[in-house]
Write a structure and sequence with these properties.
This protein is an alpha+beta fold. The chain is built from five helices and four strands, in the order αααβββαβα. It has a single domain, classed as Aminopeptidase (3-Layer(aba) Sandwich), CATH 3.40.630. It is 36% helix and 17% strand. Helix 4 links the parallel strand 3 and strand 4. Helix 2 crosses helix 4.
Length: 193
């Protein structure tokens, strides 16, 4: 009996360990947290570059957009905590749908924005303005996980009994603005989620 259990353990470890691609996870984290993206502050051109990167990955995985703007759900975010000249900023959620023809949908989300160069507030560092806040340990790694799960489920040979809605939320560092916007303006009937 011990040998049978050990055999099934080895087989299942081999099957599951081959499914998650560690190199892709690292690639996504390193790309999103790179200094060139300057912390992906909401409304910045670097934030737009991060959004395009995520949308490109969704497209590669053959996820379906559910918006008129492709994968983008656009909205305006307001910086409330800090007085800045540009307190209104254009933002977007990036949404990809994996349709398994099921009645229910699971949402898998992460936020891709971060504190940019400290002008938005929320940093624990004293005098943080001008310092790049890379955000590798929460949102870049969260988005990497989101993209890897999107890859896993879209390439899975077994069709799951649920659909998946992958959402990279924008403007979350400003007070959960992107997720709140999605709930008020869903791209899919909330009763099916």
């Amino acid at each position: 009996m011990k040998y049978i259990l050990a055999f099934f353990f080895i087989i299942s470890v081999q099957v599951f360990s081959q499914e998650i691609n560690e190199k892709l996870l690292k690639k996504h984290v390193y790309h999103l947290a790179d200094d060139n993206l300057k912390g992906r502050g909401t409304g910045s051109k670097e934030n737009t570059k991060a959004a395009k990167y995520i949308a490109k990955e969704f497209k590669k995985l053959n996820l379906k957009p559910l918006e008129n703007n492709g994968f983008y759900q656009c909205f305006t975010a307001k910086v409330k905590k800090v007085v800045v000249n540009d307190s209104l900023r254009e933002a977007k959620n990036i949404i990809g749908f994996l349709d398994n023809k099921a009645n229910k949908t699971i949402v898998i989300g992460a936020h891709y924005d971060h504190l940019g160069e400290g002008k938005q507030g929320s940093s624990l560092a004293e005098n943080s303005v001008g310092i790049i806040h890379n955000g590798a340990d929460d949102n870049a790694s969260g988005v990497a996980g989101l993209l890897e799960l999107a890859r896993f489920y879209s390439q899975n040979k077994v069709t799951e009994p649920v659909n998946f809605l992958f959402i990279a939320f924008g403007a979350e560092e400003l007070g959960l603005v992107g997720s709140r916007y999605f709930v008020k303006n869903p791209t899919l009937d909330l009763n099916k989620i």
